[in-house]
Write a structure and sequence with these properties.
The chain is of the alpha+beta class and 196 residues long. Helices cover 36% and strands 14% of the residues. The chain contains six helices and seven strands; from the N terminus they run H-H-H-E-E-H-H-H-E-E-E-E-E. The relative contact order is 0.12.
Length: 196
């Protein structure tokens, strides 16, 4: 099986690793994924540090290839890790928010969504939820059902017809929203001659 929608560099590397799980080298993954060697080495190192992959040979010469095997398969979606092998917090938060807003089935405020999406291990800040919601409103995934009142926050509802898949839309520095399920930018800030 392969991940639906857009398949970025790390997703392609992960799929190649899962295919060759028992024994692979960076060159094999390059051949299968067409990713750059730099990206492959970076991601394999992160996977080793994160406990997903382990080295299975000892290199005795500098031109010996390092062989690896997959020891922890978490499924189709690639693990989003930093260089130290730790899960990237922002991605985990958006995944929780994206899943929760669909499950709520009714109106919510940003504070309510943050509380519902939080777990004992991962508490989501109200400001994180508010920022993500506002960007998804611009992209049409969420509608604002009630404006901010004197003593009440704005309320929102998820547009169920806009559900495109399990992977959360990615917000890019306030200027675009990319949906990895469809592999396309679904909203982009207008650029005027003043911005150029």
């Amino acid at each position: 099986m392969q991940s639906a929608g857009g398949r970025g560099t790390f997703q392609r590397i992960w799929e190649a690793i899962r295919t060759r799980r028992e024994d692979f080298t960076a060159f094999m993954i390059h051949s299968d994924s067409l990713a750059t060697m730099g990206a492959i080495h970076h991601y394999i190192n992160a996977l080793v540090k994160g406990g997903y992959v382990e080295r299975i040979n000892t290199r005795s010469k500098c031109n010996d290839q390092q062989h690896f095997c997959l020891i922890r398969d978490c499924g189709i979606e690639y693990p989003r890790l930093d260089a130290k092998g730790q899960p990237i917090q922002r991605d985990l938060c958006t995944e929780l928010l994206w899943r929760t807003m669909r499950m709520v089935g009714s109106e919510f405020s940003s504070r309510e969504l943050a509380a519902l999406a939080s777990t004992p291990e991962r508490v989501i800040a109200h400001t994180t939820a508010s920022y993500y919601i506002n960007q998804l409103v611009k992209a049409g995934y969420i509608t604002r059902t009630k404006a901010r009142g004197k003593s009440s926050p704005p309320r929102y509802r998820f547009v169920s017809q806009r559900y495109s898949g399990p992977r959360p839309p990615v917000v890019g520095r306030n200027t675009y929203v990319y949906d990895p399920n469809m592999d396309k930018v679904v909203w982009q800030e207008d650029i005027t001659h003043v911005d150029l």
